Amino acid sequence: MAGNRYRILVKGIVQRGNRYLTVEKWYDDNIANPYQWEFIDGVAEFGESPDAAVVRIIKEQSSLVTTVGRILYTWTFMIGSECNLGLAYLCETDMDEDSVSLTEDSRAFKWIEADEFSEYIHNKRMLDDLERAELY
User: Fold this and answer.
1) Interatomic CA distance for residues 91 and 64, integer angstroms
2) Distance, CA of 70 to CA of 96 (rounded, Å)
3) What is the 3-state secondary structure (H, E, C) of the chain?
4) Chain segment 99-135, per-residue pLDDT in tens
5) CA gap 39, 121 in Å, rounded
6) pLDDT score for 136
7) How is residue 90 annotated by DSSP?
8) CA 113 to chain centroid
9) Looking at residue 133, what is its pLDDT?
10) What is the pLDDT of residues 30-81, one digit of tens each?
11) Residue 33 CB: number of other CB atoms within 10 A?
């Protein structure tokens, strides 16, 4: 059908040993806490495979070189006539935890264990997805 559009979003849940990289990112000036803890994410470029996109985005946003493990979960939502398809990847790095260098969109990072997800991540849907994926 003409007019149907898809956008592919990728989320990189970077694991090193038993810890996961979280970043504190700016979301919105109109909420009480405009910065929120999240995983690295971004949009695949047209024609780019989601696997390549997640590795590229993690490198761009954190300077970490990663390898793709597996897809943990997916999600979709509509914005107007555009369907957004999201893929959350478990990615691994063997780089030193202090090798992280953030872009200006993020103001801090922490390496946390899976049992700490709910202390930092306040998006209930994401926590439910992580639990279903048996990450914690």
Assistant:
1) 11
2) 22
3) CCCCEEEEEEEEEEEECCEEEEEEEECCCCCCCCEEEECEEEECCCCCCHHHHHHHHHHHHHCCCCEEEEEEEEEEEEECCEEEEEEEEEEECCCCHHHCCCCCCEEEEEEEEHHHHHHHCCCHHHHHHHHHCCCC
4) 999 998 899 999 999 999 999 998 899 999 999 999 8
5) 9
6) 80
7) E
8) 16
9) 92
10) 777 788 999 999 999 999 999 999 999 999 999 999 999 999 999 999 999 9
11) 9
Mean pLDDT, the chain, rounded, equals 93
pTM, two decimals, is 0.91
Q: How many other CB atoms sit within 10 Å of the CB of residue 50?
A: 17
To which H or E segment does residue 16 belong? strand 5-16
The fold of 5-132 is: Nucleoside Triphosphate Pyrophosphohydrolase (3.90.79)
Residue 26: how many other CB atoms lie within 10 Å: 12
Measure the CA–CA gap between 26 and 47, rounded to whole angstroms.
28
Task: Give residue 2's pLDDT.
Answer: 56
Instruction: State both tokens at 46.
Output: 């047209």
- Residue 110 burial (10 A CB sphere; 0-12, 13-18, 19+): middle
